[in-house]
Amino acid sequence: MRLHRNLVFTVIDSLNFIFNEDEYADKVVARALKRDKRWGSNDRRFVAETIYDVVRWKRLYAEIAGVKEPFDRDNLWRMFAVWAVLRGYKLPDWKQLAGTPPRKIKGRFEELSKIRKYRESIPDWIDELGTRELGEATWEKEIAAQNEQAKVVLRVNTLKTSKSKLKAILEEMDIATETVQHYPDALVLKERANVFLTSAFKEGLFEVQDASSQRVVPLLDVQPGMRVVDACAGAGGKTLHMASLMQNKGQIIAMDLYESKMKQLKTRAKRNGAFNIEYRIIESNKAIKKLHEKADRVLIDAPCSGLGVLRRNPDAKWKLQPEFVDNIKKVQEEILTGYSRMVKPGGKLVYATCSVLPSENQEQVKKFLATESGKQFTLEKDQKILASTSGFDGFYMALLSRKN
Ligand SMILES: C[S@@+](CC[C@H](N)C(=O)[O-])C[C@H]1O[C@@H](n2cnc3c(N)ncnc32)[C@H](O)[C@@H]1O
């Protein structure tokens, strides 16, 4: 395997933006892929995967390379050399790679692999938090699973096509997929591909949505004709799933604090042919009050630490702060108490997060059930999904029903 100079320079520049300019990895990768129109799919894959890999393994690679933050360009080259050696590349004799002996790199890797915080490349505080919340044995497996590369999972938009039709359309484009038992609308790519460039995506035949995330809306049991509130809709991954399961019949009220996210949702809804969505920005509590006891179903897809989706967002390991996790738990509590009031007597509520921490999940639900608002609800069931046992993202979802 040969390393190509212009691809590697793009990787180094991109790492500089992520580590030193505090930019988000996904945005930097998207920009990097536009740098040279002549790149083929293998080149693009190299650029994207190498950037994500170095971000994911930052702590381990920095320790092996003997460099400390803030990383200057020499440091970034040393970390890249670690990546290349561990992936089996023969280092070319470029001047930037001088002084990075492969034997030393392999030796340090062996030594550091005995210590979890280096082996799994995580900050001490996340390692301690995970151990405290999940127990040593489960955390050990979970963090290892969350360091693997995420699969690309599609959700078929049943407003426009069926799973078998989409599978055949993608096959025509040389994109092979497989179905997964118990996930009725999911297709998993056998090999990574940029599906956003396909005509099938542009026509709204599918969305990219992890399989665990695809379990949330079915749990809420939405039916055509219902009034459903998606209270933390964001860019609307689950709103679109609702529209699809409701066959565009009934009313979905999608809410969020941010107009920018609602805008993204509107674009996606148009592409999906989802017409039964109303958009509301939450500027004050009035928006919630207006809907008290008006909804058959409410989804609270709560803001969270994201400690279930590190595969997808490896830079979250470095951007996340302990204070953020403490704060977001307070927000979750307030949202559960306040927004649950929108559920009609006899209606249903799902509380979900993309975190594996019990303190954001089952413990929040337990606390809520003991409050005045919570006393009107019964916990029907919940699902604690770990990446290590499911093979997909870590998620939590609880179904609560409001008493009549
Ligand atoms: C987990 S994300 C939602 C993802 C989205 N449901 C999807 O499936 O694509 C959580 C969302 O909650 C929003 N949010 C944060 N605080 C909120 C609040 N107090 N009320 C409503 N939404 C809030 C965030 O802006 C974010 O979009």
Bound molecules: S-adenosylmethionine
Q: Ranges with pLDDT <50 over ≥5 residues?
A: none
The CATH class assignment of the largest domain is Alpha Beta
User: Average pLDDT value?
Assistant: 97
GO molecular function: RNA binding; RNA methyltransferase activity
Keywords: Methyltransferase, RNA-binding, S-adenosyl-L-methionine, Transferase
Protein name: Methyltransferase domain-containing protein
Family: Belongs to the class I-like SAM-binding methyltransferase superfamily. RsmB/NOP family.
Task: Provide an overview of this structure.
This protein is an alpha/beta fold and 404 residues long. The protein folds into three domains: 5-121, N-utilizing Substance Protein B Homolog, Chain A; 153-208, Alpha-Beta Plaits (2-Layer Sandwich); 213-402, Rossmann fold, CATH 3.40.50.150. 44% of the residues lie in helices and 17% in strands. It has helices at 5-20, 25-32, 41-56, 58-65, 73-86, 102-112, 116-119, 124-134, 136-146, 163-172, 199-202, 216-220, 237-245, 259-272, 286-289, 316-319, 322-339, 362-369, 387-390; strands spanning 153-156, 177-180, 183-189, 206-208, 227-230, 251-256, 277-281, 295-301, 343-353, 377-385, 395-402. Strands 7-6-5-8-9-11-10 form a seven-stranded mixed sheet, with helices on both faces. Strand 5 (227-230), helix 13 (237-245) and strand 6 (251-256) form a beta-alpha-beta unit. Helix 1 runs antiparallel to helix 2 (25-32), helix 2 (25-32) runs antiparallel to helix 3 (41-56) and helix 17 crosses helix 18. The longest helix is centred in the last third of the chain and has 18 residues, at 322-339. It starts with a helix and ends with a strand. The model has no long low-confidence stretch (mean pLDDT 97). It binds S-adenosylmethionine (SAM). S-adenosylmethionine binds next to helix 13 and helix 17.
